[in-house]
Specification:
There is one protein chain. About 25% of the residues are buried. The protein has 2 domains: about 80 residues, Beta Barrel (OB fold (Dihydrolipoamide Acetyltransferase, E2P)), CATH 2.40.50; about 110 residues, Nucleic acid-binding proteins (OB fold (Dihydrolipoamide Acetyltransferase, E2P), Beta Barrel), CATH 2.40.50. Strands 6, 7, 8, 9, 10, 11 and 12 form a 7-stranded mixed beta sheet that branches. A hairpin with a 2-residue loop joins β4 and β5. The protein has about 240 residues and is α+β, with helices and mostly antiparallel strands.
């Protein structure tokens, strides 16, 4: 009797798993049969939908544990490819300008639209390096998000005190200095939060050191990738005195 009951339970469990496995197989087939998308197609795609784009590596965060997050851009728009599965040797091939085909699923976190669970293929073709688009005039407008993840520039920004201490910036990890840097800049009376993403630009990079040297009242030109975190929160890659 016990054997019969055990057999019934095993069969019931197997029947429960069939729909799940079928859904996963259907999702994999859907992703493999995707039609190549333009950036406009990608923007219009529903969240969690499979996506397929061709684009160019512009920068990437540190490789770690067979994963690497990539900032990518084409002539018609940009993409944030989150934690692409990749070996260390293969990651070394994804230098800025490299053309890649990417398949994955469209996702969103705190306003940042990204490609998740991605696979990639390196393609032949001339390299493409994006030129920063000046979006200073779009700060505080609904149009700014149209440039999400692109390499952008902000001109003539004034450094503000980050907090009540009067400091021009703050460490996420003040003791170890092994994490992001935060600072605030203003334009035309409005203040904005910017960030140096540690895994993109660590504490040995020029931009990290430049932010550490900022003083309240400095007027600077900035470049970086237009990341989004509950609003615009650019990952800054360059800080220079305003021209």
């Amino acid at each position: 009797m016990k054997k019969i009951i055990s057999l019934i339970l095993v069969l019931a469990l197997a029947l429960c798993l069939v729909p799940v496995l079928a859904e996963e197989e259907a999702a994999d087939e859907e992703a493999s049969e995707l039609v190549l998308m333009s950036h406009e197609d990608y923007v219009l795609a529903e969240m969690d939908a499979p996506v397929y784009v061709e684009t160019y590596v512009q920068a990437h965060q540190n490789w770690w544990n067979d994963k690497m997050t990539i900032y990518a851009q084409s002539e018609d728009g940009a993409y944030f490819i989150y934690e692409l599965g990749i070996s260390k040797d293969e990651a070394a091939k994804l230098v800025p300008g490299t053309k890649i085909a990417v398949k994955g699923f469209k996702g969103e976190w705190s306003g940042e639209v990204e490609i998740l669970d991605a696979t990639y293929e390196i393609l032949e073709g001339d390299p493409f390096i994006a030129t920063a688009t000046d979006v200073t005039a779009l700060l505080g407008t609904d149009e700014l998000i149209n440039h999400q993840n692109e390499l952008v520039a902000f001109k003539g920004m004034t450094v503000e005190a980050y907090d009540d201490s009067g400091a021009a910036f703050a460490y996420k990890d003040a003791e170890g200095k092994t994490d992001d840097l935060y600072f605030k800049v203003s334009k035309d009376g409005q203040t904005y939060d910017f960030c140096v993403e540690f895994y993109l630009c660590g504490n040995d990079t020029e931009v990290y050191k430049a932010v550490e040297a900022l003083k309240v009242g400095d007027v600077v030109d900035l470049e970086g990738f237009l990341y989004w975190y509950n609003g615009a929160n650019p990952h800054i890659t360059s800080v220079t005195a305003a021209q």
